[in-house]
Amino acid sequence: MIKASTLRRMIAAAEEDRKDLAERIALKAESLAAAHKELSDMDDGIAEARRQLAELINEEGR
Is the pTM higher than 0.70? Predict the structure, then answer.
């Protein structure tokens, strides 16, 4: 039979592992959010460049 002290140690170790995993997930979520913002900024830049290109093409066509 497992002693109560052994179970307490096992639970404490599992809780610590869970805490570590939660922290790693949070860091990855932050990293993913930063990458998503960078992607969004790039999309905005591309859209602006396309808008400017369309303006230039329209001006040249006049």
Answer: no
